[in-house]
Automatic annotation (TrEMBL), chain A:
TM ranges: none
Keyword match Protein biosynthesis: no
Matches recorded under Gene3D superfamilies: 3.40.50.2300
UniProt modified residues of type 4-aspartylphosphate: 54
Source superkingdom: Bacteria
PROSITE patterns recorded: RESPONSE_REGULATORY
Entry protein name: Response regulator receiver domain-containing protein
Coiled coil: none
Species of origin: Brevundimonas viscosa
Source lineage: Bacteria, Pseudomonadati, Pseudomonadota, Alphaproteobacteria, Caulobacterales
PANTHER family, sorted: PHOSPHATE REGULON TRANSCRIPTIONAL REGULATORY PROTEIN PHOB, REGULATOR OF RPOS
GO MF, one example: transcription cis-regulatory region binding
UniProtKB/TrEMBL annotation, chain B:
Single Gene Ontology MF annotation: ATP binding
KW DNA damage (keyword) present: no
Classification via Pfam families: HWE_HK, PAS_3
Taxonomic superkingdom: Bacteria
Protein name: histidine kinase
Keywords assigned by UniProt, alphabetized: ATP-binding, Chromophore, Flavoprotein, FMN, Kinase, Nucleotide-binding, Phosphoprotein, Photoreceptor protein, Receptor, Repeat, Sensory transduction, Transferase, Virulence
Chemical reaction(s) catalysed: ATP + protein L-histidine = ADP + protein N-phospho-L-histidine
Domain PAC: start-end pairs: 83-135
PANTHER family recorded: ETHYLENE RESPONSE SENSOR PROTEIN, TWO-COMPONENT SYSTEM SENSOR PROTEIN
PAS domain boundaries: 10-80
EC number: 2.7.13.3
SMART domains: HWE_HK, PAC
C-alpha cells in the first residue's frame, strides 16, 4: 500500500531518516515541515493521506492543534511522533495515536501500516504494541 | 481574675502585634463568622474596614478558587481540623496573588472551640519561582529526549552509506532507544509529561521496554511477577541495558525466537537484596554455554557487576536460559539510600 505522507518534524536529521525509512517502504513523502504554517501550506497544495506529526516544532508546541486540524477538518490520517508522549496523553480528536521517539524502522513500519489500514477501512485485529492509541 | 481594663489592654496588645506582622491575620467566631482582620489585610486587599466581615472574605478569592476554599473551610469548621489551602487572593490593584491560608482553632478547657485564628501569606513569588524551575527542568528533559532521537537518527543515516554496517547500526540504535526509554521513567515529571503507562516504577518501565517483543495478539511474552520498586537515574542505564540485552538475545536465539516461547521475570526484595530472575521457556533446546560470548553479554555483566554492584549468574539449562541478577537492595535508588543513611547518622 503506497501512501502520500507528510512529515512534520523540526529536527532535520530525524526528518531525513524518517523520509528514507518511509521511501524504503515504498511510500511517497510529499514534504517535510518544521513548523505548523509550512505544514498547512503543503496540505493546501498537495493531497496527503497520512501526516506524522511531532508536537514541539520550530514555532513551539503547535503540533497538537495542527494534528487536530489536519485530522478533523482536512481528513488527513494523523499519527503523532514525539519524545514526550505525555503531552497528548488525553488524546487528540480526529487523530489515531502516538509513537514514542526515538523509535526504530520496524515500529514506524507497523504503526504506518496500521494507520493506513484504518484509513482505508481494512479490518485490523491488533494495534502495534508500541503505538499508544487514542480512545 | 482579669479586670475589664486588663482584658481591653490585652486585646489592644494582641491587635498591635497582629498589625505589626507582615502576614494578613484574621479571626472568626466558632461558627466561622469573620469579625477581625489586621491592618495588613486591609492594606493588601484595599477594601473598606469591616466590609469583609461575615462571609464577605470568599468574594476576595479568584472565582475558580472560591468553591474549593469554601468547602475546605466548612470542613474545618465541622471537624475542628486545622485549615490549610492555597488560593488566589485579589490585591487592591485587581491582581490575583497566590496565597497560603492557614487557621487553627482555639479551644477552652472543656475542649470546645471558642475562636479560629488564621493567617494569609503571599506566596506568589515563591510559586512563580517553583513554576519557572519546573519549566526549566521540563525543557532540559525534553531536549535530552530529543538528543537521543537525533543521535539515533544520525547513526541510521550514517549507516545508510555502508550496507555492511547495517547490523551494527541497528544494534547500537536499539541500545540507545532502550536508554531513552529508561530516561523517560526517571526524569523529573509534571502531571502532563508523566508517561501514559501510569506509575514510574521498575515494572512499568520493564513493561514498556518489553512491548516491542509482544506476541502477534499483543499479549506480553515477558511475564512480570514479584515486588515492584522505584529506580533512579543512576540505575536506569544499567537496568535498561541489562534487560535490553537479555530480551534481544532471547529474540535471536532463545525463548522469544520460537512461537509460543515466553520468559518469566520475577523481581523479589528480601532483607538487603533485590533479586531479578529471568527464566526462558518454550524456546529451542539450549545446548550449553556458547563458546564465545558476544558484546551484549559483556554489557549485561558490566551493568550488573560494574555499575549496580551485584552478581550476574547464567545457567544454561536445556529447557531454557536462566539469568539471575542479585543486587544490593539499595542498588536501584542509590541516591535515596545515601540520603537515608545521612538522615540516620545525623539523628
Amino acid at each position: 500500500m503506497t501512501a502520500r505522507i507528510l512529515i512534520v518534524e523540526d529536527e532535520a536529521l530525524v526528518a531525513m531518516e524518517l523520509r528514507f525509512v518511509l521511501e524504503d517502504l515504498g511510500h511517497q513523502v510529499v514534504g517535510t515541515a518544521a513548523d505548523a504554517r509550512t505544514a498547512r501550506n503543503i496540505v493546501r497544495e498537495t493531497e496527503v493521506d497520512l501526516a506524522l506529526v511531532d508536537i514541539h516544532l520550530s514555532d513551539g508546541p503547535t503540533g497538537i492543534e495542527l494534528g487536530r486540524e489536519l485530522g478533523q477538518e482536512i481528513g488527513v490520517t494523523v499519527l503523532f511522533m514525539t519524545a514526550n508522549p505525555g503531552m497528548v496523553r488525553n488524546g487528540v480528536a480526529g487523530t489515531i495515536g502516538v509513537l514514542s521517539k526515538p523509535t526504530d524502522e520496524r515500529a514506524v513500519q507497523t504503526a504506518v501500516d496500521y494507520a493506513l489500514r484504518r484509513r482505508t477501512g481494512e479490518p485490523v485485529q491488533y494495534a502495534p504494541p508500541q503505538l499508544q492509541l487514542f480512545g | 481574675m482579669l479586670t475589664a481594663d486588663d482584658q481591653r489592654d490585652r486585646r489592644e496588645a494582641l491587635a498591635a502585634i497582629a498589625d505589626a506582622m507582615p502576614q494578613m491575620v484574621w479571626s472568626t467566631r466558632p461558627d466561622g463568622f469573620h469579625d477581625y482582620y489586621n491592618a495588613r489585610w486591609y492594606e493588601f486587599t484595599g477594601v473598606p474596614d469591616g466590609s469583609t466581615d461575615g462571609e464577605g472574605w470568599n468574594g476576595m478569592f479568584h472565582p475558580e478558587d472560591q468553591a474549593r476554599a469554601w468547602e475546605r473551610w466548612r470542613h474545618s469548621l465541622e471537624t475542628g481540623e486545622p485549615y490549610e489551602i492555597e488560593y488566589r487572593l485579589r490585591r487592591h490593584d485587581g491582581v490575583y496573588r497566590w496565597t497560603l491560608g492557614r487557621a487553627m482553632p482555639l479551644r477552652n478547657e472543656a475542649g470546645q472551640i471558642v475562636r479560629w485564628y488564621g493567617t494569609c501569606t503571599d506566596i506568589d513569588d515563591l510559586k512563580r519561582m517553583e513554576q519557572a524551575k519546573e519549566l526549566l527542568s521540563q525543557e532540559l528533559s525534553h531536549r535530552i529526549k530529543n538528543i537521543f532521537a537525533v543521535v539515533s537518527a544520525l547513526i541510521a543515516l550514517s549507516a545508510r552509506r555502508f550496507p555492511e554496517a547495517k547490523g551494527f547500526a541497528a544494534a547500537v540504535r536499539t541500545r540507545i532507544n532502550a536508554l531513552a526509554r529508561a530516561h523517560e521513567f526517571v526524569r523529573p515529571h509534571t502531571e502532563s509529561s508523566r508517561p501514559t503507562v501510569g506509575s514510574m516504577t521498575l515494572h512499568a518501565f520493564l513493561t514498556d521496554l518489553f512491548k516491542a517483543y509482544a506476541g502477534a495478539d499483543g499479549g506480553a511474552r515477558v511475564r512480570l511477577t514479584g515486588d515492584d520498586a522505584s529506580f533512579d537515574d543512576q540505575a536506569a542505564t544499567s537496568v535498561a541495558l541489562l534487560f535490553h540485552e537479555l530480551a534481544t538475545n532471547a529474540a535471536k536465539y532463545g525463548a522469544l525466537s520460537a512461537e509460543g516461547g515466553w520468559v518469566d521475570l520475577d523481581t523479589r526484595r528480601t532483607d538487603d537484596r533485590f533479586v531479578l530472575s529471568w527464566t526462558e521457556h518454550g524456546g529451542p533446546p539450549v545446548e550449553g554455554e556458547p563458546e564465545r560470548s558476544g558484546f551484549g553479554a559483556s554489557l549485561a555483566t558490566l551493568s550488573v557487576e560494574g555499575q549496580l554492584g551485584g552478581r550476574l549468574t547464567r545457567t544454561w539449562a536445556r529447557e531454557g536460559l536462566r539469568v539471575v541478577a542479585d543486587l544490593p537492595a539499595t542498588a536501584l535508588s542509590r541516591r535515596r539510600a545515601a540520603l537515608n543513611v545521612a538522615t540516620t547518622t545525623s539523628d
